[in-house]
Design a protein that fits this description.
The complex is a heterodimer of chains A (304) and B (141). By secondary structure, chain A is mainly alpha-helical. Chain A has helices spanning 6-20, 27-32, 41-110, 112-116, 128-144, 158-186, 205-231, 237-252, 258-278, 281-297. Classes of the chains: A mainly alpha (304), B alpha/beta (141).
Chain lengths: 304, 141
């Protein structure tokens, strides 16, 4: 130690104090003293000890910084998971409310007492499904705090959606026409007329359907299917979302007829698959409008 | 002098003088690319003399856009605090740019120094080059 210049000892002390204070600017100065070709072995070893200490502290601080960053990321992930949990529970509550209130309403409507009251007759009309759904869906959207885009209300990718929609609708309508043709050929009398299309079915509902179809798609695809797909944590979440939505909306149409429920279930698969690909309501709404009206003009609605 | 860093690890300390001779033989750090991985064969001696050269090369590699760095320490027999600081600076810079560095094939002395300095908490250290390469390949580009 006697060989070491007191000035160097003083400098080392100053550097060490800076490191203690959290500044690593002078570490390189200490490390330059570890070169034994330029400094005495005693000084080099002392500097090496200081250097090792400072590097160890710096490494520990860096590891801590990384841990903090990691914790922040995990915290954000937990917050996101919690948000999913809230949304999922909201979806669950909404669907249970939807199904139970609808079933309850059907029970009320079917009772003799209610049937005698003129006021309640308005509930026997078809829009009851949409009315109940809309209120519950609005509640769900409010709870989720998501944007309308998350529920498919967006024009992003609308051109592609419309092209795909026209192709799918053409195939769908073609299959319906072929089926009617086959039925008329083998079971005459099932349909009132043998023409594929009949304008005698045309009425004002063909025009109002331009509002009803997007509304139904918004509820079925945009809210229920989209939320399920977003919140489910399975490999086949798209398939499961379509499956649940199709069963749900098939079931909700059972009040009208089994035929309508089956038709809703089948078409829900087609439009569900389209929405799963497109993530906007443009294509599915157009297809719903076209296929629904075409089925009507072919006389299918007489079975529903 | 007692309390020497080299004596703090459970390895027979080799005098700095012996290694200086090796360094002065002019052995250079080698680098090569294997796919998207930059392989660095670190000098036999990573001390205040060689650390400047290694720092310059590592900085150039990171600044050049390398994202996956494999530092092979199989030839490295000695590392000083200066060498550790170079590695720390390099990994900080690389991680900041979204890259990853893996170290491999450490000799017992070098491995002990890394552990003593707490660097095993910062670096992924693999026993073989193949393990390190596999770890880097798991990282999406």
């Amino acid at each position: 130690m006697e060989n070491i210049n007191p000035e160097i000892i003083k400098a080392l002390t100053e550097h060490a104090n800076k490191i203690v204070a959290g500044s690593y600017e002078d570490v390189d100065k200490i490390l330059s003293l570890t070169d034994k070709t330029e400094n005495s072995p005693e000084l080099a070893e002392l500097a090496e000890t200081f250097g090792m200490m400072s590097v160890k502290i710096e490494a520990r601080e860096y590891a801590l910084e990384q841990t903090i960053e990691e914790l922040k990321k995990k915290n954000a992930h937990i917050a996101a998971l919690n948000n999913v949990r809230v949304q999922l529970s909201s979806l669950f509550v909404s669907i249970v409310l939807l199904v139970s209130s609808y079933t309850f309403a059907l029970g009320v409507i079917a009772s003799e007492f209610v049937l005698k009251q003129h006021f309640f007759k308005i509930f026997t009309r078809y829009p009851i499904v949409e009315i109940i759904s809309i209120f519950i869906i609005l509640r769900m959207m409010f709870v989720s705090k998501l944007s309308l885009k998350d529920f498919g209300v967006t024009l992003t990718g609308w051109k592609r959606s419309i092209v795909e929609s026209l192709i799918v609708s053409a195939v769908f309508i073609g299959l319906l026409a072929y089926f009617k043709h086959w039925v008329c050929a083998h079971h005459s009398g099932v349909f009132k007329e043998n023409h594929i299309f009949s304008l005698s079915y045309f009425n004002i509902s063909y025009v109002t359907y331009i509002l009803i179809a997007p509304l139904q798609e918004f509820v079925a695809r945009g809210v229920v299917q989209g939320s399920l797909e977003r919140l489910l944590d399975t490999r086949y979440k798209g398939f499961v979302a379509i499956l649940v939505t199709s069963f749900l909306f098939g079931a909700l149409h059972m009040a009208h007829s089994l035929n309508l429920a089956i038709a809703s279930f089948i078409s829900s698969w087609v439009w569900g698959w389209m929405y799963c690909r497109q993530k906007n309501l443009t294509g599915v709404s157009l297809s719903h409008f076209l296929v629904g009206n075409a089925a009507d003009l072919m006389g299918y609605w007489t079975f529903f | 002098m007692s309390g020497n860093v080299l004596e703090m690890v459970d390895i027979n300390p080799i005098t700095v003088h012996d290694f200086n001779e090796v360094t002065l033989q002019g052995i250079k750090m080698e680098t090569k690319n294997e796919g998207d991985v930059t392989l660095v064969l670190v000098n036999p001696r990573f001390d205040p003399i060689t650390s400047k050269e290694i720092e310059t090369k590592l900085t150039a590699i990171v600044d050049g856009g390398a994202k996956k760095l494999l530092c092979d320490f199989s030839s490295t027999e000695y590392i000083s605090s200066a060498g550790l600081r170079v590695m720390l600076s390099a990994v900080k810079k690389l991680q900041k740019s979204g890259g990853k560095m893996v170290l491999s094939c450490m000799q017992p002395f070098v491995s002990s120094v890394f552990k003593m300095a707490g660097f095993d908490q910062i670096f992924e250290i693999c026993e073989t080059k193949e393990q390190a390469m596999a770890s880097l390949k798991r990282v999406s580009p």
